[in-house]
Amino acid sequence: MMVELSGGPLLEVDGVTLQYRTKRNLVTACYRIDFEIHRSDRFVILGPSGCGKSTLLKATGGYIAPVEGEIRLNGAVVRRPGPDRMLVFQEFDQLLPWKTVRQNVVFALTASGQLKGREADERAMHYIDKVNLSKFADSYPHTLSGGMKQRVAIARGMAMEPEILLMDEPFAALDALTRVRMQDELLALWEETRFTLMFVTHSISEAVKVGSRILLLSAHPGQVRAEMNSDGSDPEGPDGMRLSARIERMLFHEGTPERETENV
Predict the structure, then answer these.
(1) What class, spelled out in words, does domain 11-84+166-263 have in CATH?
(2) How many C-beta atoms lie closer than 10 Å to residue 121's C-beta?
(3) How many other C-beta atoms are found inside a 10 Å radius of the C-beta of residue 137?
(4) Which part of the chain is the ABC transporter domain (predicted)?
(5) Is 83 left (phi over 0), alpha (psi -120 to 50) or beta?
(6) What are the strands of the beta sheet with 42-46, ordered from one edge?
(7) Please, is 215 exposed, middle or buried when counting C-beta atoms within 10 Å of its C-beta (0-12, 13-18, 19+)?
(8) Helix/strand/coil (H, E, C) string of the chain?
(9) 117 phi and psi, to 5 degrees?
């Protein structure tokens, strides 16, 4: 059950620095990141490769602990993974290959202890229908296209009815036409259910289209360069093209990031 806050943010990222260790050294992925996400935001994190976008998403999911700062959900510090934050990755092999579409979604509900039996099956089918896969409910993952597998992963995440859905470049491995269609389907699903989304991408056009708010990170180590309002602008329309051009200039701007806000 969602906890309502009187006007406060759902998610707070407060001065967060994240590091990970390689075989050779300790790498700072992002440095002193600050932002807030409110309910029903489509919050996109955009930046060049290696700026810590995915690491920040995993930290929000509770899989990586900050070395500095805090991540808070509904005011409580995030310390571990939980069903209130569901992750969708870009890999197509995130489904259990020996289970059908329906069974994959049901399994997430029963394994988490949220629902059992008929209730789990009914909720699973509800969200499978939302992503237009009812006809494939009894199909196995190997029979599905890449886009269909991603829709199953989205249905599985949505079925958990999390506080926030975390998506890590979920359409990056798809062909261009399928990627555009998946963006459209994600926005249509959001219009219907108004879930809260935190979405990572390195594509400017995808960020402009999917996001209502865009956080722009600098190159490694990632720091906040700007936060912009997009509200799902058409990347090919006048507003979207202006915003895309501004983002592109900032991505290639040298120097220390300075936070700024722009409304489009």
Answers:
(1) alpha beta
(2) 18
(3) 18
(4) 11-244
(5) alpha
(6) 85-88, 164-168, 197-201, 42-46, 213-217, 224-229, 261-263
(7) buried
(8) CCCCCCCCCCEEEEEEEEEEECCCCEEEEEEEEEEEECCCCEEEEECCCCCCHHHHHHHHCCCCCCCEEEEEECCEECCCCCCCEEEECCCHHHCCCCCCHHHHHHHHHHHCCCCCHHHHHHHHHHHHHHCCCHHHCCCCHHHCCHHHHHHHHHHHHHHCCCCEEEEECCCCCCCHHHHHHHHHHHHHHHHHHCCCEEEEECCHHHHHHHCCEEEEECCCCECEEEEEECCCCCCCCHHHHHHHHHHHHHHCCCCCCCCCEEEC
(9) 55, -130
Tokens 């629902």 belong to: 115
For residue 207, give the nearest of 34, 35, 48 by alpha carbon. Answer: 48
CA dihedral 209, 215, 219, 224 (to 10 degrees): 170
Which tens digits make up the pLDDT trace of 87-134?
A: 998 877 789 999 999 999 999 999 988 889 999 999 999 999 999 999
Per residue in 211-264, pLDDT tens? 999 999 998 899 999 999 887 778 888 888 889 999 988 887 655 455 555 544
